[in-house]
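ingest -> validate -> predict -> emit
validate: passed (alphabet ok, no gaps, 365 aa)
predict: started
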Amino acid sequence: MATGSDLWGVRARDRWPTRTIDDRRKRALALTMGSTTEVADDSAARATAAAATDRRSGRSPSQIAWDRLKRDKVAITSLVIVIFFILVAIFAPLLVALEGEELNKYHPELISALNTYPIIGANPQHWFGVEPRTGRDLFAVWAFGARPSLIIGFVAATFSTILGIIMGLAAGYLGGKVDKVITWIIDLLLSLPFLLMVLALVPIIQKRFAAPGEILTAEETSSIRFVVLIGILVFFGWIGLARLIRGEVLSLREREFVQAAKVIGVPTRAILFREILPNLVGPIIVSASIAVPAYITAEATLSYLGAGLVEPTPSWGRTVSNAQNAYARYPLFLWPPVLSIALLVLALSLLGEAIRDAFDPNTRR
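emit:
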């Protein structure tokens, strides 16, 4: 017969494993939570240490962004592609001379008398073949065609960015009547159909440069349209950046450092360009990098529609327009400019996105 002490021992032994298992689970859970907390603390400590290192080393936001950009493989690849096309445009005469050709040298002997299509394809003498009907070397047309596209894209982006910054700063900081007038101008320009306005303005402005009864030569027409295209793209291109800058300035002008600068009597120009503008570097660079491919595409589109550059100035857009009817029989006429426009625009777009991420401290690629 079991005594009381024996029954107590049995009950104790029955309960002991349960308490042991529960204790083990609690200890394991505590260790897991502790390790997770330690990892989070370590990550936060490393981030804080990195930020402290940046402050101690005195690096500017631009230097920090450049360090991030150098570690971005997509950005570096995109930059290499953009530099490649810029070098092609700069050294186009050298590349064409290396091929042994000239821009406006025609080879009628390489054109079939039956259908006006070339009788040869790509070869060591003509790297991209020759142009149907004329026999002009297509590599020379492609290399020199990169020049107007890049010049129009970068020049128009530069001037539209400068104009957008000035108008956005004035509207956001000064406010009042200045803000109302600039906002009204922006709304008016946004209401105008861009493509129809360009198609209408190009011939009108072109005629202004010709004397009554005078017919412009092809070279004069191409030069005038080159300047007109840049002017029109700048005239319509500053709107988006101005609205962005205006919104940012409306927020920044209420910050403590701007209010303190006003109190101590800092001039308005110094506040705008030394206090507010440095905080807008990221959006400005991103907007400019996105504007370049947009303007290159616009130039190609307008040349395709006949409102852009004309002969003898080569253009990728006009080459695409001329090649659309010959694509089925001679695809070499179409693919080089199409692939170049697509690759250049894609590289510039990805580079702009990478620059935006590099300037954003909350983004990690």
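The chain has a mean pLDDT of 80.
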